[in-house]
Amino acid sequence: MHQFKLAEEQSSSELQVDCAGVSIGRVPIIREVTFNAHAGEFTAIIGPSGSGKTTLLKAMTGELAYSGSIRLAGLETGKLSAEYLARLRGVLPQASQISFPLNVSEVVGLGVIDRRRGRDGRTRRIADALAKVGLHGFEGRSYQELSGGEQQRVQLARVLCQVWEPVAADGQPRWLFLDEPVSSLDIKHQFQIMRLAAGYAAAGGGVVAVMHDLNLTAAFADRILVMKNGKRLTFGVRDDVMRADLLSDAYDFPLALTRFGDSNVPLVVPAPGSAQ
Ligand SMILES: Nc1ncnc2c1ncn2[C@@H]1O[C@H](COP(=O)(O)OP(=O)(O)O)[C@@H](O)[C@H]1O
Ligand SMILES: [Mg+2]
Predict the structure, then answer these.
(1) What mean pLDDT comes out for the span 169-196?
(2) Spans of all domains in the chain
(3) Is the CB of 24 under 6 A from ligand 1?
(4) C-alpha distance from residue 207 to each of 50, 192, 246, 265 (Å)
(5) The CATH fold of domain 2-211
(6) Average pLDDT along the chain
(7) Which residues are placed with Cβ below 5 angstroms of ligand 2, an ion?
């Protein structure tokens, strides 16, 4: 009985991906991917362009049909209603195009799904979310007229509004699924957003992020899934995955690892001679 409860509690704070596959039309895009992510940790998904990172993320968030099993909080995501999913996880897509004129406050407000907050609560939540992403006071600006990096941060503020508490009142962790959340940001804002995401995990939430930048991944990820050709190449804790041979194979390019000063964080660089 006690053991059963323990197992149940554990699965409720995990994302369990078991032999997951995704086909678009008849073409298999993702095959046999297995890994677990834990609430309280930052899990990164890396791999070359076209390796299936976005497709896998969409399967995990309930946007694409999949074979195998993908469970969030012990529940098969493909069977959950959109409303239930919206309370459990927020999703930052790789590209968010909005083709009608909205101001920033309206875009961020799309994430405020708790109607009990009332108008003042809603306004405050939007302001707090914008401050968190470094866009304090941007409420009245036109979304269309912002830079790509600013739009990306507005979208993140929207997602944060949706799953504000890393651990909700019911004791269940909430999840952030982020597809290249910092790829169009300058270095200061890249670190700001990575710290924000890592802080969400440190507070007990789950974070799963597709990452382009290997050094930001090394600096912030607890565990890393490496994708190649639609399959899992490897999965493990940061230091087991951040290896020159493994990354060179993943990206089909000679890479070397170094460290900066006395830092524990590995730094990935092109292998000597790559520029010749
Ligand atoms: N809607 C789609 N129709 C056909 N092929 C797709 C579709 N979406 C993605 N793909 C293909 O699936 C592969 C993986 O794409 P994606 O998941 O976007 O990769 P990544 O995010 O790793 O760059 C690519 O070869 C891509 O062309
Ligand atoms: Mg992608």
Answers:
(1) 94
(2) 2-211
(3) yes
(4) 22, 15, 24, 20
(5) Rossmann fold (3.40.50)
(6) 92
(7) 53-54
